[in-house]
Write a structure and sequence with these properties.
By secondary structure, this protein is an alpha+beta fold. It contains one helix and four strands.
Length: 93
């Protein structure tokens, strides 16, 4: 058995923990995203692209530590989608 780490698998203690609140599921321009706030990290969010062609997404940390509003989340998603190459489903180079 190999002792080499496997790509994509992170030890449990290094995985992010999320706030107790239910995640927000938002559809923007026909694309579905799950938005979760990190536990003990005000203003830090993970956006998981649920309907995308790959397991992919992005994170945002607000410098002021305030919670994001739904319109701010929608704008962040639109900005992310604008940077996706439709041919590959990944960020444009």
């Amino acid at each position: 058995m190999s002792t080499e780490p496997e790509p994509g698998l992170a030890p449990e203690h290094t995985r992010p923990r999320y706030a107790e609140a239910d995640p927000i599921v938002m559809t923007v321009d026909g694309q579905d995203f799950r938005i979760r706030q990190r536990a003990e990290k005000p203003g830090e969010y993970d956006f998981d692209w649920l309907s995308g062609p790959h397991e992919y997404g992005f994170g945002i940390t607000r410098a002021d530590g305030y919670a994001m509003t739904l319109p701010e989340m929608e704008e962040a998603i639109r900005n992310f989608l604008a940077e996706i190459d439709p041919a590959t489903g990944y960020l444009k180079e």
